[in-house]
Design a protein that fits this description.
The complex is a heterodimer of chains A (about 210) and B (about 500). Chain A is mainly alpha-helical. Chain A is about 75% helix and about 0% strand. The two termini of chain A are about 30 Å apart. The chains are: A mainly alpha (about 210), B alpha/beta (about 500).
Chain lengths: ~210, ~500
């Protein structure tokens, strides 16, 4: 009985919550992502290193932009609705994740269609990385909005996400190997573990805020 | 001077000081500054600085500092957009363009202060206990500070032209994307180093002027948002013209021609020792380095001379040359046979122990007829020295310079060619390359290192001791040692 009520509530909550999301940042990032995919070595087959650079940067960018979707500036008012906070925030996060993931997939498909064919492009590994960065962007912003439900919180989340991303650039061999490198497997163990961690953080930050 | 312009100037100064305080205290900028200093100091601490490499890498970190400052500059500019802030500012005598100018100037000062501080911290840490080589290039460092300033300026311009908070993160990503995607283009505000040849050409000083022109363009663009005064339009025009001019000068410079030549040359593989022809002879050994690395020859000598001094005199005449190599390139087996090949790195602050031990090991291996790094005996899987008398000798020779250690073992995933399947493989990595030895040989060598007449005994019995057929048990009486732990048996292919 309880579960059925929750199910009905979830279905009913989706359209208004999705409508309440400010999609502008994600839209801007999506346009940029597709543009970067098209601008990667135009006019010639895309090499593995160029493809991975663009795919990785786009993952980080979409994560940062997705973070803006979990900002509910009316969080204190929404608290009086029957939908609990975790449900409202999860709908926002899932919606943003779906859009970001879809845009990333389109961008990478556009590049794969033009890529060199004789080498392994490591798409499986790139998917794990992109998932990590999109969810990291979401959870950093989700942490920040717990303190203050304002749009500026998304910028704080973006700063942390970008800070994490640039930190990994200093050890490129460990974190950002190419599919042909020996460290490829080990790096993706790190990204996989990281993905579990940031997803847990996201789930925890979606709980009710004590007021 | 009219009273009005005095008060205008005074209020602009007050505004500038206020914005500057905010910029310099912003937690985002400080976080990015901390990331750069923390990472760069830890990753370079144990390596001798090669300025030709480190100048470019240090300048590149201006991009990260700039990312933090761009976010804070963008937030400062967008303050007008919060709530009714714009309306609240309206009755204040100072106008919106003055606020933009104050923010811009504050960003330029903050960018200079933090940019210089971050670069000074990196260079300062690299000077600790170091023998730097290569070209120290102030123009390159200035370029690093300028790129930080450019990014904060772009942050202000973006804040004035697009109200969205997402603009700054997108622009930051665009900067990084361009640097990684077009790494060899000199039109980038900061050019990463190209590892084509040792001492690859770098953009000329014109390039720093090009970044300065870009700063002018974006600064003027930010102010242009508030109206097209003749000064502002003039500034954008002058900035653009200067940017085009300096970009052209940097692209048509002699350095650019050298760079194109280097790119062409890198397409045909060259030998790893090409150009390493600055040679010095000392103590019967010849040391050759690339012209910019001559400062390290004494460091190599300190690691090689004690080994050579411990050898019998007849062996000293047949030693290979110590010749520097590049990290990538064509490796001729004859080059490997005739030379000991230190690379373009050397340790510092504790890291030199491994560098010295490695180089001493190469000379010890050459003297005793063992395979050296890069040479293979027993196939790619390497060979095993356990149970052979010369293992003790070679480890004792290393001990003249640094304490010998056991080989390292690492598990690596190897991707098979063809089907792409992955499998784990254990690699042995000793100072001789893929050459294995055990704790028993090391223990004997360590005992020998504390024995006074060890050198004389080894030199007297040299021929017998370095013979691959002589085992440890046969060597003990010659070395004056009593049997200790059980002698180990070869587990892999014995070294020949």
């Amino acid at each position: 009985m309880h579960l059925m009520r929750l199910g009905r509530l979830s279905v009913a909550a989706v359209p208004p919550v999705i409508r309440a999301v400010d999609w502008t940042p994600l839209a801007a990032a999506s346009v940029t992502t597709i543009a970067l995919a098209l601008l990667t070595t135009p006019g010639q087959p895309i090499q593995v290193q160029n493809l991975t650079v663009t795919a990785r940067m786009c993952g980080v960018l979409l994560g940062v932009a997705a973070g803006f979707a979990v900002v509910d500036t009316a969080d204190e008012i929404s608290a009086v609705t029957p939908a609990p906070r975790w449900l409202r925030q999860s709908i926002r996060a899932l919606g943003a994740f779906a859009v970001a993931a879809a845009v990333w997939a389109v961008a990478v498909s556009v590049m794969v269609a033009r890529a060199v064919t004789d080498v392994d492009l490591g798409i499986g590994g790139l998917i794990v990385e992109a998932a990590f960065w999109i969810i990291t962007g979401l959870s950093c912003a989700a942490c920040a909005v717990r303190f203050q439900p304002v749009r500026m919180a998304a910028v704080a989340g973006a700063a942390v996400t970008l800070g994490l991303a640039v930190s990994t650039v200093f050890d490129r061999e460990r974190f950002w190997p190419l599919p042909q490198d020996d460290q490829w497997q080990a790096a993706h163990v790190i990204w996989g573990v990281g993905l579990v961690v940031v997803t847990t953080v996201l789930l925890l930050t979606n709980r009710e805020v004590r007021r | 001077m009219s009273e009005r312009s005095v008060s205008k100037r005074r209020s602009l100064r007050a505004l500038l000081m206020f914005e500057l305080r905010l910029q310099l205290r912003h937690p985002i900028s400080w976080a990015f500054v901390a990331i750069v200093i923390g990472w760069r100091v830890t990753t370079t601490w144990q390596w001798m600085p090669d300025w030709s490499v480190e100048m470019a890498d240090t300048a590149l970190t201006g991009l990260v500092v700039g990312a933090g400052l761009m976010l804070s500059a963008n937030l400062a500019t967008l303050r007008d957009q919060r709530g009714d802030a714009g309306e609240l500012f309206d009755p204040v005598p100072i106008r919106v363009d003055a606020r933009t100018i104050a923010t811009l100037l504050a960003c330029v000062v903050a960018g200079t202060v933090l940019g210089v501080a971050v670069i000074a911290a990196q260079v300062g840490s690299m000077l600790v206990n170091s023998t730097p080589v290569g070209r120290f290039d102030l123009a390159e460092l200035a370029n690093g500070v300028l790129v930080t300033i450019l990014m904060t300026t772009v942050g202000v311009a973006a804040g004035r032209w697009t109200p969205g908070l997402i603009a700054a993160p997108i622009v930051i990503l665009l900067f990084f994307w361009a640097v990684f995607q077009f790494a060899t283009s000199w039109l980038l505000p900061v050019v990463p180093r190209a590892d084509l040849v040792v001492g690859a050409p770098r953009p000329p000083a014109w390039h720093a002027l090009y970044v300065l022109a870009l700063i002018l363009v974006f600064g003027a663009a930010a102010v242009l948002r508030h109206g097209h005064g003749p000064y502002r339009v003039g500034l954008v025009t002058v900035g653009t013209a200067l940017a085009v001019l300096t970009a052209t000068m940097s692209l048509t410079s002699p350095e650019a021609a050298l760079m194109r030549k280097a790119i062409d040359r890198s397409k045909t593989p060259t030998s790893i020792i090409e150009g390493a022809d600055h040679c010095v002879s000392s103590g019967g050994v010849t040391y050759c380095s690339f012209p910019s690395y001559t400062g390290w020859i004494p460091l190599w000598e300190q690691a090689v001379a004690p080994v050579v001094a411990a050898l019998p005199s007849e062996v000293r005449t047949t030693l290979p040359t110590v010749r520097q190599r590049t990290a990538t390139g064509m490796i001729d087996p004859q080059v490997l046979a005739d030379n000991i090949l230190p690379g373009t790195t050397w340790g510092r602050n504790g890291g030199e122990v491994a560098s010295r031990r490695w180089l001493a090991a190469q000379m010890a291996a050459a003297a005793t007829g063992l395979p050296r790094e890069g040479q293979y005996s027993g196939g790619r899987a390497g060979c095993d020295l356990r149970g052979q008398a010369r293992a003790i000798v070679v480890l004792w020779l290393i001990g003249q310079v640094e304490r010998p250690v056991l080989p390292g073992r690492s598990s690596v995933y190897v991707r098979e060619r063809g089907n792409g399947a992955e499998r784990a493989r254990t690699n042995v990595q000793s100072d001789f390359g893929a050459v294995d030895y055990g704790a028993a040989e090391l223990a004997y060598a360590e005992r020998l290192l504390t024995t006074a007449d060890a050198g004389d005994r080894i030199r007297a019995g040299w021929r017998k001791l370095v013979d691959p057929a002589t085992n440890v048990d046969e060597a003990l009486p010659i070395l004056g040692l009593t049997a200790g732990s059980a002698a180990s048996k070869a587990e892999g292919t014995p070294c020949t």
